[in-house]
Amino acid sequence: MNEDDWKPLGQREIRRQRLKSFARKTDLRGCHTAICSCSGVFATSEIEPDTITLANRPKVRLFNPDGSLLSEELWKSGRIVFMFFALDLELLNIVTEDGKLYQYDLLLKLLTSFSVSSEEILEAQTFRTDSTLGLVILTMSGNFSVLPNYENSLKRLDIGPITQNVPDCWTVITSKKRSYILSAVKTNFYTVATDGSSRIEVHPISVSKPFNNLLQITSSLCGSFCAGTTDSGIQLILNSKTLEIITELNTAAKIKSVPLAAALLTQGSENLGPVAALLWTEFLVLLDCDKNWAIYDLESFATIFEEKDGIRIVGSRFQDFLTAVSESTKQVTLPTGAGAMLVDGYEMIAANNERGEEIIAVLRDENSPECSLVDGIEQCMTAATYEYDPAMQKKYLKAASFGLVLTEDFDPNVFANTNRIMRVLNQLRAAPGLAISIDQFRELGPMGIVGRLQSRGLYQLCWTVMDYLHLERKFPNIKKDLLTNWARTLVRDCAEHEYEKVTRKISMKVDQLKCSVSFIDIAREASRSGKKELGLNLVELEPRFRPRVELLLEISPKGDRALECALESRDPDLIYLCLLHIHAKRPKEEYSQVLKKYPAAAAQYAIYCKEHNKRMLGELQDPTEHSVYLAMGHLSSAKEAKADVERKIASLEGAERSLRMAAVDDNALVNISSQKQLLMAQKELEKVYQHLNFIGKPLKTTLEILIPLDQAAADKLARELKFNEKFYTRMKAVFLAGNAKYEELDKMLAKTKRNASLPPDQIIKIINDSGNKPEAEKWLPKCQGRTKVKAHINLKSFVQAATVAHQLGDFDLIAKCHKLAQQAGDAAQANEITARYAS
Fold this sequence. Notes:
The protein is an alpha+beta fold. The protein is 46% helix and 21% strand. The strands form seven sheets. It has a five-stranded antiparallel sheet with strand order 1-2-29-28-27, with no helix packed on it. Strands 3-4-5-6 form a four-stranded antiparallel sheet, with no helix packed on it. The chain has a four-stranded antiparallel sheet with strand order 7-8-9-10, with no helix packed on it. The longest helix has 23 residues, at 666-688.
């Protein structure tokens, strides 16, 4: 066929566009087929012979829209009767002769199965309600049953037989917002409501030419129209509401065979009525309500499926879409249409043809309302959305963009949004994406598109859709959800030797995208997939301690890893949770070993026992251990006391007593004594300086606050608590230099003991950082060798530093000076160093 095949049909024009050409042939003959709505994914399975053997069991195959194989599985259950896809998800459902329904994902992984009939099934069909997909079943004995929602077999309605014999053909129609089973037996229709609330009604089939029975009947997607074929070769279109024949066409003279399938095109049916698409082996016949007909030749055996906006044709080597030509597309092809004039005008101006300006002038003429520029922009923009060829899209969008420059009466945001949508559509239509139209895109919506792509593992394409359509503005969690689902898929599919690689890949991707995800959910997915080690690796990436501990207790019931995590968190509740779990799950001897292995946990356990169950202290059998654990408990209590000084001091004294009883080394006692002394000093300081808070602060912070207030008191406190002398000297120097007290600084440094003195390069840095470079330079004569290099670096004099380094013959130090100059953004000094010492 031509890539774009137009045919007139009465008052409308029909267009067949190529969605996909298959690289390999897909044999559809003798197969059950199912096509997914708003997707293009399709499934096949060979029809089994009457006698089933292991040698002739069929394969169920799922294909991408481009014909590439998505998945396949040898069928091992009952004989397949019917296949169909879910309404809003890419889930394949298979109904078998033995009354079962099996549901699979696109990888043919079984999701669920349940019984839909207690009898053997002969045929089944689906029908649409407002929000769900129903299923009607015809059994071998001629009984009908209905599942209003095919996924809920508990609400099955048994209608029973409509006629004495199995019907010749049947379908499901809609009339007055209710669904009915329409059954044909010989020359009569029989109808009954799918909810079983009406009696069986009989309607004669009024056809101009005598016939014996109806060979097939197909309902439209909306259920309002039907297409049928009689044994005498008459093709019918009828109204489902009245069951009256709208039109009929006798094809017996030219076509001896019966159509393989039929579908209805209901676009514009309100005004023009439906179009019946009748499929034969090598061609497709279109018939409208006025008996106008058209024929499309098919290159191979095919099947057809009705969508809301057209008919999808899947052949052995192609997938096409048949639709009525939109009004906007007509206007960009008719010579007198505003869209066509805008396209011609733009192309002529681009080719320096003066005629183009005349055409644009007509469009801009306010006295010519029938062909306005705004109409032309709207028509070109809309026509582009119905094109599948990117070249045609660009042609119309360029013309619309040109027109947009010439007027302020058209919202540019509408054009920008259309451009984004077209970019997304073109990405989706690329293999192996979604072969969908603009109307199907709108029906699914952005999140429906993302959901379908995720089900096939096309996360890169999901990300593209999210970026192009700015979905993060409307759905703030979409990035997090996509990343989490991608990671869960990666975890499910990885092999054992890839655990470290997968963990690293997930961690790097999260860091790269700067997105917070729940590693707990990902780790849980690994655990459920039987990949315990991978789950443990992923738990370590989670920053929140409580979820980590809870999942570690679930993955590793012994509790050691969870306890280590709880100890890292320093959360007593989490530590108690782990200890109680271990106490319940493991023998007493093992529990005692755990307490010995983790003394910090034992300390928390001692506190717990002291407060809740003193008899349990007996598990701490060693008196020394008992004393140490109690001491650690006292220290924890002191930490929790925060601003309560009396409680802190009392807890420290309790810890001191416990440690003396345990006869531990003096270092712990000295540290506790120093902490107690600091608290008492801070308490006294708060009495003097009531507007300041000292209690609970480290010694360093306390001294920093006290030095500006009372240097003598700060000196005394530092001396009594044996604070590092050199560090204290530096703190005082920073204060004096920061307050420009350089004479006091010189006196202090002169009196400083040798072991507490500061090297001159550090003094230069302190003074220079205070903002007085000349004062800092006074200390340069006291610097020698490498110290002088450091001093110049501290002064940001990188050239002088490099000069001294050159005198020392240290070329690595010269390179360091050059690098520091670059890092400081001082290109002049960096270039000077290069000029002097590059050779």
